[in-house]
Each structure stands twice: as structure tokens, then as C-alpha cells.
């Protein structure tokens, strides 16, 4: 419904959404959540098969977007580990490898993925949700934050290599569930009784992946972050955007996260 515009850039590919639902077989005592929870079973295998993904964590669950043309490879890669369903007219219908075998090509051995630089600004973030029926009470504030406040010039937003702070606000509405990521200072502008977060009220720090816009063709970017954090049992809330990828980790674990990622960077040289 959006009119064509010289100001709107659209990626070439059409993307499909994968939602990973736990079936209760997760090892006892595993506390990792977010992207690290599916690092070994979904993200790493797709990277090994040259599948580029966009990752979107929400307050309720996680979604993986894959390009429509990669669907046969995705199905063949994940069918051994997961029961896979597609939604048709609101019903979940089982999918088998035979359903998407046409055009499937066995992938070539994957080259080692590029490890992109990571930056960790000092900004502290909150991960929140809001009940849909209370959304009108904060709508004006949301519009102000989304479209009018914190809007630095394009070159200032993308050119800094040493980020002391970062401007980041994410609002997602998926099947009626709302997820919001905002910095702790912006949260103070909203009515505290309407924004819901975990009982601990924990704050998060960000790792931004990429020194320049990443594009959509490269694979293994999410795995670069997810695999070492999963090995260390560190939770991460991951958001891919048009230009960069962003991983939020609990504030108290940021030093360990940076050390892990630096060690991986150095070992790849």
C-alpha cells in the first residue's frame, strides 16, 4: 500500500518467517534464551548451508526470516531436527522434504564466514511489552519517539566507528503482541505503570555488528554472535535491521560477551 518513493529503499528478495516452537525436549538446566537458544539447532546449520537470515527477537518469542528462494535448502537442512509445518488458511500443515525437493541443490562446502567488527555503546536498554488495549494511552509518545525525537543526520548515525552511545528504538507488533526496545532514558518519558518488563527489571547492553551496512547476501553473521554466546550459556535478544545487526545481552554480562567475541575475532586471523 506504500507509494513508490525515492526515499524508500526495498531489498530485492521476498522473505518468509520461521517461528521456532519448543516441544519440551530442551536439556534440563539450560537457561539461555533468545538467539542463543536456537544457535546450534537452527542458526549454525543454516549458515553452513549458505542461507542468509534476518533474526528478530520479540518479548514473547523469536523469528527467523529466510529468503523465499532459499526455502528448499532451509527445509532440507532443518527437517532432521524439527517437525516443520506451513500455515494454510489458518491451519498448520506438515511439510516434508518431498514437498520442496524441486530445485533443491546440495550446497557446496561453506567457506569460513567473515567475522564483522562489533561495537558496544555505553547506552543501557530496556526490553518491554505493553497490553494492546493500553496502547492508545502511549500512542502520542510513541509517535514522538519514533518520528520526531532522536533523529540524528544520516551520516552521523552511520559513520561513527567508536560509539559511546547509540540511538535505537524498536517497536514490533506481531499477531497482536507488542515488543519495544528503548534506552533507559527514553523509558522515563513513558508512564511506568503501562510498560511491562521482567520481574527483575533488568537492563541490557548492546553489541552492534558491522562497521558498515551488511547487506543481505552474506551468511553467518547471526552465527558469529550466537554460537560463542550459546557455548557460554549467555542469553541474547537479537534484532537484524536493514543496515546492521544488534544483539542485546544482560548488562552484568557485557564484559564477558566482549571478551568472548574478541577472542573469536583474534582466533580467526
TrEMBL record:
Protein name (database record): Cytosolic arginine sensor for mTORC1 subunit 1
Domain CASTOR ACT: 11-78, 201-262
Organism: Machaerirhynchus nigripectus
Lineage start: Eukaryota, Metazoa, Chordata, Craniata, Vertebrata
Localization of this protein: Cytoplasm, Cytosol
Cellular component, GO, one term: cytosol
InterPro entries noted in UniProt: ACT-like_dom_sf (IPR045865), CASTOR1_ACT-like (IPR049479), CASTOR_ACT_dom (IPR027795), CASTOR_fam (IPR026249), CASTOR_mTORC1 (IPR051719)
Alphabetical UniProt keywords: Cytoplasm, Phosphoprotein, Ubl conjugation
Gene3D superfamilies: VC0802-like
Domain Cytosolic arginine sensor for mTORC1 subunit 1/2 ACT-like: from-to ranges: 116-199
Role: Functions as an intracellular arginine sensor within the amino acid-sensing branch of the TORC1 signaling pathway. As a homodimer or a heterodimer with CASTOR2, binds and inhibits the GATOR subcomplex GATOR2 and thereby mTORC1. Binding of arginine to CASTOR1 allosterically disrupts the interaction of CASTOR1-containing dimers with GATOR2 which can in turn activate mTORC1 and the TORC1 signaling pathway.
Self-association and partners: Forms homodimers and heterodimers with CASTOR2. Interacts with the GATOR2 complex which is composed of MIOS, SEC13, SEH1L, WDR24 and WDR59; the interaction is negatively regulated by arginine. Interacts with TM4SF5; the interaction is positively regulated by leucine and is negatively regulated by arginine.
Family stated for the protein in its record: Belongs to the GATS family.
GO biological process: negative regulation of TORC1 signaling
Pfam family, one: CASTOR1_ACT-like
Keyword Phosphoprotein applies: yes
Molecular-function GO terms, alphabetical: arginine binding; identical protein binding
Amino acid at each position: 500500500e506504500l507509494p513508490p518513493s525515492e526515499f524508500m529503499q526495498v531489498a530485492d528478495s521476498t522473505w518468509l518467517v520461521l517461528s521456532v516452537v519448543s516441544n519440551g525436549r530442551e536439556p534440563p538446566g539450560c537457561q539461555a534464551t533468545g538467539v542463543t537458544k536456537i544457535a546450534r539447532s537452527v542458526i549454525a546449520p543454516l549458515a553452513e548451508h549458505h542461507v542468509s537470515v534476518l533474526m528478530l527477537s520479540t518479548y514473547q518469542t523469536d523469528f527467523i526470516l529466510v529468503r523465499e528462494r532459499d526455502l528448499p535448502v532451509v527445509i532440507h537442512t532443518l527437517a532432521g531436527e524439527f517437525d516443520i509445518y506451513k500455515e494454510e488458511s489458518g491451519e498448520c500443515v506438515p511439510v516434508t522434504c518431498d514437498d520442496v525437493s524441486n530445485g533443491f541443490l546440495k550446497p557446496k562446502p561453506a567457506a569460513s564466514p567473515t567475522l564483522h567488527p562489533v561495537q558496544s555503546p555505553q547506552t543501557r536498554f530496556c526490553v518491554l511489552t505493553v497490553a494492546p488495549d493500553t496502547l492508545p494511552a502511549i500512542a502520542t509518545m510513541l509517535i514522538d519517539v519514533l518520528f520526531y525525537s532522536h533523529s540524528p543526520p544520516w551520516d552521523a548515525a552511520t559513520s561513527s566507528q567508536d560509539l559511546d552511545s547509540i540511538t535505537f528504538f524498536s517497536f514490533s507488533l506481531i499477531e497482536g503482541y507488542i515488543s519495544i526496545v528503548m534506552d533507559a532514558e527514553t523509558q522515563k518519558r513513558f508512564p511506568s505503570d503501562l510498560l511491562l518488563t521482567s520481574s527483575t527489571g533488568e537492563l541490557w547492553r548492546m553489541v552492534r555488528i558491522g562497521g558498515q551496512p551488511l547487506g543481505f547476501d552474506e551468511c553467518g553473521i547471526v552465527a558469529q554472535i550466537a554460537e560463542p554466546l550459546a557455548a557460554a550459556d549467555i542469553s541474547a535478544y537479537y534484532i537484524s535491521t536493514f543496515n546492521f545487526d544488534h544483539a542485546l545481552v544482560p548488562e552484568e554480562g557485557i564484559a564477558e560477551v566482549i571478551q568472548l567475541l574478541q577472542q573469536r575475532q583474534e582466533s580467526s586471523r
